[in-house]
Amino acid sequence: MTRLLLTGNAAAAWGARLAGAEYFPVFPITPQTEIIETLGQWIDTGEMEGRMVTLDSEHSMITAAGAAAAAGVRTFTATSSQGLLYGMEMLYTVAGWRVPLVMVNVSRGLSAPITLEPDHNDILAARDSGCLILHAATCQETVDALLLATRIAEDQRVRLPVIVNLDGFYLSFTREPVTLPDASLVNRFLPDLDPGDYAFRAEKPVSEAVAVLGGGPYSYFRYEMHLASQAGATVFDEAVGDFQAIFGRAYEQVQTYRSDDADVVFVQMGSFATKAQDAVDRLREDGVKVGLVRPFLIRPWPGAALRAALGGKSAVVVMDQNLSMGMGGVLHSEVASVLYGHADMPPILMSAVGGLGGRDIVYDEYAALAHQALDAAKTGECPPPRLLYTENELREMRKFQAIAAVEALDEKEDGS
Amino acid sequence: MTKSSRFERMKDLPSAHLLGAGTAMCAGCGGLEAVKEVYDVLGKKTVFVNAAGCMTLSAVYPFTPFQGSWLYTAMASAPAGAQGVRDALDILKAKGRITDDDDLDVVVLTGDGSAYGMGLSATSGAIERNLDFLYLCYDNEGYGNTGQQTSGATPTGARTSTSTLGFTGDKKDLFSIWAAHDPAYVATVIASEPLDLARKIEKAAGLKGPRLILALSPCPTGWDYDPKDTVAIGHLAVKTGIWPLKEYIDGKITHTRIPHPRVPVEEYLKLQGRFKHLFEPKRDDATIADIQAHVDAYWAEVDREDG
Question: ipTM value of the model?
Answer without folding.
Answer: 0.96
